[in-house]
Design brief:
With 518 residues, the protein is α/β, with parallel strands linked by helices. It has two domains: 138 residues, Coagulation Factor XIII, Chain A, domain 1; 318 residues, TIM Barrel (Alpha-Beta Barrel), CATH 3.20.20.80. It has 14 helices and 20 strands. The chain has an eight-stranded parallel barrel. Strands 13, 15, 16, 18, 19 and 20 form a six-stranded mixed beta sheet that branches. The chain is elongated. The relative contact order is 0.11.
Length: 518
């Protein structure tokens, strides 16, 4: 045989061998590759009313700004036609004079009754204690908010002409009595409140820092109160904030982000922040509340929002209630007010929905309320776009859970809620669960997808068989499901069934049954 033919035949044989080896390798590797379950959950469009976001009702002992409209406990509770199922929180305005009529003697009865009523109806609370002065509203004189004993102790004051032309008594922020009399008394009120409500799992999620300005605005619109210098003003407002900061460990603080009467004097955002000590607020991650939606916004409001909404929750407060928006027709439409709140990346919004105006709103424009909770609405709306895991695993192995998430709404879930995975039987009875403590959705913003991998540890005692796979975002201290997801499949416990998994018998090395795995 010629040499070249021998080489040709030898080459052909070698090629066949190599091809067989390659194909065998492919088949072997294919057999070793795990079979993967990949799920694309069905997304829903229905409104979701969740914690730390959404619409708020309004409760108080009287119409703040008006001294002639007292509200009863019944008006603030059973006066609502229903349990306000599309509203997840309540703004609670209460004045100091009612809470501490005599120094050191507190009257929390009505306050507690109102909060207890709404707590069992799954509402959270944003609290504001009116502790300075009330200049009135729409030509009506305001009522007293400070207890008489504050003045009797020697607290000095000035007077200014309020909204109704009536002279109103205002704290003299420059006088030594403010630091020597007022601030210690205010701290006493705050400590009494903290003893009752500043605890893990508190339903009070935000408390506004008060102690300067008219209404709850952290600004002296009518009196144009003057300090010796901007530095002196900053120091005093920072001291008021520090009283709150050192008192509260579990309730997050918030502050009015709006401008003060002298905003035109400041040419930069940082100068404006310094003027109102908002630099202290953002350094401590206060929530930021704006009144005046939509006709009261201006100056540095948008700049502050754009700078800080990704790190601090935004609260949009209408200067007007629903009645005024609809009847006066000078504050934009109700729908337009919502549009601006959405543009401000708001987690929360309210328009003084006292029981009467709430009932009217739900009769006339429930569609606007629903739109605020649909995709693109207030706060957050978290959706797992895809989930995948091995179809079959032995007990004692790692369950690697691949995910891709999106936030559909304009704000953020700014309080961490870790992912919990459950394996259950077909009736939903839990057989295994574990929390991924590294899961953190607090920085998820609209328009971006978030791929994640969670690793769960299957116990070797887990019985072989088929299991349903369920997930939930849970409250950290209790481990209970708390957040609605924008997908189908939720069960009565707030868990979402997303698929199945087959658990095989434990096949670990010898010795593992005694807790030692070499």
């Amino acid at each position: 045989m010629r040499r070249e033919n021998i080489l040709r035949k030898a080459g052909t044989s070698a090629a066949l061998v190599l091809l067989l080896v390659f194909l065998t390798g492919l088949l072997t590797r294919g057999a070793d590759q795990p079979q993967i379950t990949k799920v694309v959950p069905s997304e829903i469009q229905t409104p979701l009313a969740d914690p730390y976001m959404g619409w708020g009702i309004w409760v108080a002992p009287r119409q703040m700004g008006f001294s002639t409209r007292p509200f009863s406990v019944a008006y603030d509770t059973t006066g609502f036609a229903d349990d306000a199922p599309l509203f997840s929180w309540a703004l609670v305005d209460w004045h100091w004079a009612d809470l501490e009529p005599k120094e050191g003697q507190f009257n929390w009865k009505d306050f507690d009754t109102v909060l207890d009523y709404w707590k069992v109806r799954h509402k959270q609370f944003v609290v504001r204690f009116w502790v300075t002065d009330d200049p009135g509203w729409n030509g009506q004189p305001g009522g007293p908010v400070l207890p008489d004993w504050i003045w009797a102790k020697g607290m000095r004051y000035d007077q200014y002409k309020g909204n109704a032309g009536k002279m109103v008594r205002e704290l003299d922020y420059n006088d030594p009595s403010f630091k020597n009399i007022y601030l210690p008394a205010l701290e006493g009120l705050l400590k009494a409140f903290a003893e009752k409500y500043d605890k893990p799992g508190t339903p009070v999620i935000l408390l506004q820092v008060m102690g300067y300005g008219h209404w709850a605005d952290w600004a002296t619109w009518y009196s144009h109160f003057k300090f010796p210098s901007v530095a002196a003003k900053h120091q005093l407002l920072a001291e008021i904030m520090q009283v709150h900061i050192r008192t509260f460990k579990h309730i997050q603080l918030m502050e009015m982000g709006d401008w003060d009467w002298n905003a035109a004097e400041f040419q930069t955002l940082q100068d404006h922040l310094y003027n109102k000590a908002l630099d202290v607020a953002v350094a401590h991650h206060f929530g930021l509340i704006w009144t005046g939606f939509i006709d009261g916004l201006g100056h540095w409001d948008r700049d502050i929002m754009e700078e800080y909404w990704r790190q601090d929750p935004i609260i949009a407060e209408g200067n007007w209630n629903y009645d005024e928006v609809v009847d006066e027709k000078i504050h934009g439409t109700f729908a337009e007010n919502l549009d601006v709140a959405l543009e401000f990346h708001s987690n929360f919004t309210h328009f003084y929905f006292e029981s009467k105006t709430y009932n009217r709103t739900m009769r006339e424009q429930p569609d606007v309320i629903r739109r605020g909770l649909e995709p693109g609405g207030l706060g957050y709306r978290l959706v797992p776009l895809s989930l995948s895991w091995q179809r079959s695993l032995p007990a004692g192995d790692l369950l690697v859970f691949n995910q891709n998430w999106v936030n559909r709404n304009v704000g953020r879930l700014y309080v961490r809620h870790p992912l919990k995975l459950y394996l259950t039987d077909t009736r939903g009875n839990e057989k295994f669960s574990e929390v991924d403590t590294s899961f953190d959705e607090t920085m998820w913003v609209r328009g971006k997808e978030y791929p994640l991998i969670s690793v769960f540890h299957l116990p070797k005692e887990l019985a072989p068989g088929a299991y349903d796979v369920r997930i939930a975002l849970v409250e950290q201290s209790t481990g209970n499901p708390e957040i609605h997801l924008g997908i189908e499949g939720d069960d009565p416990q707030g868990r979402y069934k997303v698929g199945e998994i087959q658990i095989e018998p434990y096949n670990g090395p010898a010795g593992c049954e005694k807790g030692f795995c070499p």
